Amino acid sequence: MKTSELRLLSVEELNSKIAEVRRESMNLRFQMVTGQLTDTSRLKQVRRVIAKFETIKRELELKSQSEGEA
Predict the structure, then answer these.
(1) Alpha helices in the chain (DSSP H)
(2) Residue partners of 30: CB distance under 8 A and separation at least 6
(3) Architecture of domain 3-69 in this structure
(4) 70 vs 52: CA distance, rounded Å
(5) Cβ distance 40 to 32 under 8 Å?
(6) Cα dihedral angle (15, 22, 57, 42), rounded to 10 degrees?
(7) From CA 66, how far away is CA 20, in angstroms rounded?
(8) How far is CA 31 from CA 23, 35, 47, in A?
(9) How far apart are CA 13 and CA 6, in angstroms?
(10) Is 53 exposed, middle or buried (0-12, 13-18, 19+ CB in 10 A)?
């Protein structure tokens, strides 16, 4: 997903997407340990996707806090 599309999601939807990607990350780590993972670069890609989701989630939280104060 593009970043602009992610910014339109709610916090709950972002949480579900983060959980999904974290499950994928765990599966990739298991595959790596057992020697079944062929594309090791996918681990790095998944970590970056998690970071992107977490960053956007934090931006939304800060935005809602600042709107609450005003």
Answers:
(1) 3-6, 11-34, 41-69
(2) none
(3) Orthogonal Bundle (1.10)
(4) 27
(5) yes
(6) -140
(7) 29
(8) 12, 6, 16
(9) 9
(10) buried
Q: How far is it, in rounded angstroms, from Cα 55 to Cα 70?
A: 23
Give CA–CA dist 31/61, Å, rounded.
34
Domain regions of the chain by residue span: 3-69
Q: What is the pTM of this model?
A: 0.87
Residues in the chain: 70
Q: What is the pLDDT along the chain (70 residues), one digit of tens a residue?
A: 788 999 999 889 999 999 999 999 999 999 999 999 999 999 999 999 999 999 999 999 999 898 887 6
